[in-house]
Amino acid sequence: MTTGKILVIDEEEKLRNLVARIIKLEGYTVLEAAGLKSALKIIEKEEPDVLLCDVRLPDGSGVEFTKEIKAKYPIIEVILLTAYGNIADGVQAMKNGAFDYLTKGNDNDKILPLLQKALEKAALQRKLVHLEKQVGMHYSFNSILGTSTQIKQAILLAEKVSRTDATVLLLGETGTGKEVFAQAIHNASVRSDKLCMALNCSSFSNELLESEIFGHKAGAFTGAIRDKKGLIEEASGGTLFLDEIGEMPMELQSKLLRVLETSEFIKVGDTRVTKVDVRIIAATNRNLGEEAKKGDFREDLFYRLNVFAIYLPALRDRREDIPLLAHNFLVIYAQRMGKRISGISDDYMKHLMQNNWRGNIRELKNIIERSVILTDHHELTTDTLPVELLTLSAGETLSPFNLCTIEKIHIQKVLQNTKGNKTKAAELLGIGLTTLYRKMEEYKIEV
């Protein structure tokens, strides 16, 4: 089905009405204006997708009007029509952002196909803006959930530093949300209209990591068949997030230090200096101060990175935030999988609250996703939890060599398999029901 809203701006009423009727026959919504002043009022109220505008109007030039519209409403496409086609006007119109420039009478057969193309471009632009807003919302400070003192303090520090260009070092265990914080800092900064590039320093070999960050010239090494911009150059004007910075090789640390001190570097295989304007946010789960003392990390780079450090707390240190995070992930995955799941059972939540969460928020997210996949109920229940999580309580460690631990896990798996039916579980285990109850009490197994 044809969709789209088009505003026809022309002083000549008969011609304007004729063009409007032709466009309406194609299924488009058509608005009309006799001049630029009335057109502006319609644009503010109706937000059309495309303007079909005469160049010469009683209250101004369509060419200059295009410049004004593209500055205020970059998504709107403008097609200019003129009875007096000249090259200078056409060139200026395109410079001002017009989608195209047509001569009345000569190009009438081009109007409808051109309108369709302009509408497609406008629709794509609207979609991109919508996605950008969604990403911005996803990575805003408001999207970082938690009411604990520790997470509130981390958010407060991140909000303050986001208004500056200071280098930030995010500290904390794996899975605590360091990339989310980095993106939120970028989105709240004056650099938010530019790119935020992210790279995990532990994911590449030394040679590839240097090329990924700093780029290379053609012929710099085997396989380098063309020049390549590194992420640090791609992110110029914006932010570069370097995760697992503690894994960066020493020789690359010196190049990064130079960027932080002079805003310049030399690409692999190049002899010329490349200048950049980039903010660095780094993250690590290692103690870089200790690493520097041992000689495993450059001390001077550590001090440059450690201008503003923010520690992100482990999930086990902010247990009061677990219910909020769990319900948030439940909503996300239930919607994604088209399931109607209204809540989380008390027993399920009890196990979440008792877990050690060595994988932190990432581990919680994965467990909720797994449970949503497995559940056939309207709430998450313990039969969808991993056995290891059901077996362990807060502070308890799992030893694969301990006979009691193995027995406990085996009984738990059988009870899961029988969906809590103890009589059937006892039969499968080859023990009496009384023995099963005794072992459940001994191992503190709840169903």
Question: Can you offer a commentary on this structure?
Answer:
With 447 residues, this protein is of the alpha/beta class. It folds into three domains: 5-135, 3-Layer(aba) Sandwich (Rossmann fold); 141-313, P-loop containing nucleotide triphosphate hydrolases (Rossmann fold, 3-Layer(aba) Sandwich); 316-442, Helicase, Ruva Protein, domain 3 (Orthogonal Bundle), CATH 1.10.8. The chain contains 19 helices and 18 strands. The chain has helices spanning 13-25, 36-46, 62-72, 87-95, 108-138, 149-162, 178-187, 206-214, 231-234, 250-262, 288-294, 299-305, 322-337, 346-354, 360-374, 387-391, 403-417, 422-429, 433-442; strands spanning 5-9, 29-33, 50-54, 56-57, 60-61, 77-82, 100-103, 168-171, 196-200, 215-216, 228-229, 239-243, 264-266, 273-275, 279-284, 308-311, 343-344, 379-380. The strands form six sheets. Strands 2-1-3-6-7 form a five-stranded parallel β-sheet, with helices on both faces. α3 packs parallel to α4 and α6 (149-162) packs parallel to α7 (178-187). The radius of gyration is 31 Å and the shape is extended. It starts with a strand and ends in a 5-residue tail after the last helix. Residues 132-137 have low confidence and may be disordered.
Largest sheet: 5 strands, parallel
Mean pLDDT: 87
Report strand order across the widest sheet: 2-1-3-6-7
The number of helical segments is: 19
Choose one word for the global shape: extended
Low-confidence stretches: 132-137
